[in-house]
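Problem: given the chain below (77 residues), write out its structure.
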Amino acid sequence: MPIKVRYFASLKESIGRSEDSLEFSGLATVGDVWSRANPDKALPDNILAAVNMDYVELNSSVKDGDEVAFFPPVTGG
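Solution.
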């Protein structure tokens, strides 16, 4: 199943790309998507994730055609 992965803000800069396209067979979670897309990088603390523009937990399921996005924690002042 194809999954589109997008990275935003400083996370995009640290990874060195803005998106990936992955193929999965069987069930996958948002955490699985990160591990497959970035096997040499640990998942940063306090990362935010979304599936199809809805914020989700890392153990949320993804399905065929989903878009998974990762964001660094948002700060402001």
